[in-house]
TrEMBL record:
This is Short-chain dehydrogenase. Belongs to the short-chain dehydrogenases/reductases (SDR) family. Residues 4-173 form the Ketoreductase domain. InterPro entries: KR_dom, NAD(P)-bd_dom_sf, SDR_fam. The keyword Plastid does not apply. The keyword Oxidoreductase applies. It comes from the Bacteria. SUPFAM superfamilies: NAD(P)-binding Rossmann-fold domains. One of its GO terms (molecular function) is oxidoreductase activity. Keywords: NAD, Oxidoreductase. It holds the Pfam family adh_short_C2. It comes from Amycolatopsis albispora.
Amino acid sequence: MNKRTVLVTGGASGIGRGITDAFLAHGDHVVVADLATPESSNAEHIHLDISDAHQIDTAITTITRQRPIDVLINNAGLAAGSAPLTELDIDVFDRCVRVNFRGTFLMTKAVGAHMINTGTRGTIVNISSIGARQPTPGLGHYEATKAAVEALTRSAALELAPHGIRVNAVAPGPVLTPMTAGFAGNPEARSAWESRIPLGTIASVADVVPSVLFLASPDAGHLTGVSLQVDGGQLLT
């Protein structure tokens, strides 16, 4: 496969860092768009707030001076907090929507337009969540944004298909990352969650990354509008 330019949002840590390292190992040129700077990485880094359309346009202009973007991984996301919907702080809701949904929309809009304008038959992979389909009390705000990401994935897949651009999603269950360290470090909480997973364990980042690489590869050349669940069977329960 030819060396591609891969843009990964939120690639400084967690799932995004695993995705970044995997594309680098594959020989691709990776640009991490993140407010944080990745440590000890050979990826290019660009400081970017994905909820800011102007910053995105500036970043894409900078990234594409040498060559077009071939792959966009919309990975940046957060929960920002947890609470029942009737008690949820509005600022938590707004922050979650701004990053998870608005950010994914703005990145898809800008990079999709760039791919069309440059004739790039590229691919976009969104990181969703099985929470889009299976609710967990206290995470309704987060799960609503991921349901929106899945709807956006299908719409973008349909609209961009005539340009040879594929759009898919990977929907993990709980994954061991800094974002989940709080409950994963509590033996009782972790055991309770793992009891919901038929395969019996919470996923590692390494369990999720191969599906992202597959959907971004020519091997998935006839797949678009797909949301691939990586959840140890949790949605079966």
